[in-house]
Amino acid sequence: MSQKDLYSELITLLDKHGAKYRLIDHKPEGRTEIVSPMRGNKLSQAAKCMILIVKLGKKETKYLLAVVPGDTKIDLDAVKTLLNASYVSFASTDIAQELAGSVVGTVLPFSFNPKLELIVDPSLLENEEIFFNAARLDRSMALKTEDYLSITKPRLEHIAKNSETITVQTKDTSSLQNLRHSCAHLLAAAVMDLWPNAKRTIGPAIENGFYYDFDFGDVKVSEDDFPKIEAKMLEIVASWKNFERKELDKTEALRLFKGNEYKKELIEEFSKDGQTLTLYQSGNYVDLCRGGHSEHPEKELIYFKLLSIAGAYWRGDEKNKMLTRIYGTCFPTKEELAAHLLQLAEAKKRDHRVLGPLLDLFVINEDIGKGLPLLTPKGTIIRNAILEYERKLEREMEFTEVWTPSIAKSDIYKRTGHWDHYRDVMYAPFGIDNETYVLKPMNCPHHYMIYASRPRSYRDLPMRLSEPGTCYRYEKSGELGGLTRVRALTIDDSHILMREDQIHEEFDRCISMVRKMFEAFNLKDYFVRLSLNDPSDAVKYIADAGVWKKAGEALETIIKDNKLQYEVGSGEASFYGPKIDFMVRDAIGRLWQMSTLQLDLFMAKRLGLVYIDSDGKEKHPVILHRGLTGSIERTLGILIEHYAGAFPLWLAPVQVAIIPIAERHNEAANKAVAILREKGIRVEIDDRNESMQAKIRDNTLQKVPYLGIIGDREANSDTLSVRTRKGEDLKAMSLENFLIRIGNEIEHKL
Hints:
Threonyl-tRNA Synthetase, Chain A, domain 2, 35% helix, 27% strand
């Protein structure tokens, strides 16, 4: 059977059984760890398919089609034990291709050959969908797991074990950070070789890469120079055997970096703080550095790529000189680098700063100001849909919405401690009636004062206050980015004031809300970070070791009881308490922090907030700070990129476009529009004097989910010819049936 025939047979089989599947086109690739980011699945959702040869005794041989999750490998010993075999191994390429009917990398999790027994590890079936190359290197399939099971009826056995290979989702461990920091040194070495008069400043490793800041003087360096810089980096690194550490005194350091005022400033600063001055040398390149490098640079600093150039103020201060920042990335393997670059390419296509204006969702106008986005009518529709969904969840969970003003006296922020910890992001105070006010950077103090407005009893608790309140934070110009980093943000905030015995239940309720919201947004890949304090930092955190320990242990218990995958982040807590941060991966694998749940055992006591308990005594409530999305603006930016602008029906600003073919069809089109609007559907009529093809093209480019086309036949029969933005032709249907279809899709957030 040819590969083409096998693909056709697969599609025929699935359609025969009414299976639900999606086809995903991509660049030719069969390796699971590389192709997974292309099609937007996590490795555990990928079906890794291998042909095994099994010998049963001396004379009997059989072949298995073994299927395991992409983040595991086949446990040959387990297979051997399972079948009581004398020998188990992977079949040769020739035999595998003959039995599977497809080349390596395109083997299907279906056995179309009677000689192949299908065995599937049950851990793969924990996902709603499974992903695999559809007998082709350039096309993959996402298939509903329940349909896969019903069609294949595989033998389910535990045949998978943890993979020892590095995947494309490499976590930034210290070794990876060291690799990237070393690559920053290599970049600086190449730049100084090419532009000897340039002045180097600092070059740290950052998430997913590194950068180095340079003062090139009057010389203009652009991305066009990247090929020669990269070539020079490869030339230089061939002689780098190691990084040699040296200590030196201030005088020697100043002599070494004479003529470089940036390095001199750092030397003076480090010397004043009593830090040991160290430098690292590799080859002929020497740099002031605290350490953390690759052990074998000539072998390890190979898979790198320079990415972009940006302006950056020295030390991040707008009063200082603008420098040239060169960004790059580096990975341990060629495959990881390739996967990351593909992800970046896909991210560029999805950039909300490009798609937002193109889809008429938001604008940023310099006359209004940086970091102050203006949502258009379409963008506001999505914003309101998000908020209404959140309000629905809150009504179900018995929250009470409040409203508070955008300004307050500065004294309240001093009492809560926010003034000391958030002063850098607060706008300058201003005077009203001889008193000092500020724009509110958060909602917390306002909600506390609502609680404090009258006496409270234990019977009043929990008190769940929520507010989608607009807050204002001074983010530096260089840190602003479309909707994801703004200066005016709507925080969907809630504060739950409760008794200690209510902590677990209230956190459970909030976790349930977060899960429902992620499901509605189709954000299914997430874990949580338990963010704790750093006990050694008494300045950043309220100091009470016993309370911090108690709060941290309570959150860890809640996380485990809710069966959440988690990691621990030391020193990432809020100044008043530990928190659970939800880390979400979008459609192309990028990680975002969204929801947060914070446990505060300090603030009520600090502000004198009390309730009368059942024993008649005053007690301080415990506070749960809940941010459902973080901010609505940021969430909108994330969702634009997650969906690539093609929002699900319930979020789409225009759900249906009615397209009359000719002017004589306008009456029927307007009638259809009126009926749809009456049912609450967001619908527009495209009655422009353009061809039908042009109208279909334009509305498809605007990513309108459904197009309802009306010509003579439709006008005479009160029907619509329905097309989707994906190009699917759903044929003619009555308005009644169309409303049933889209109503179901909206209701179930499909």
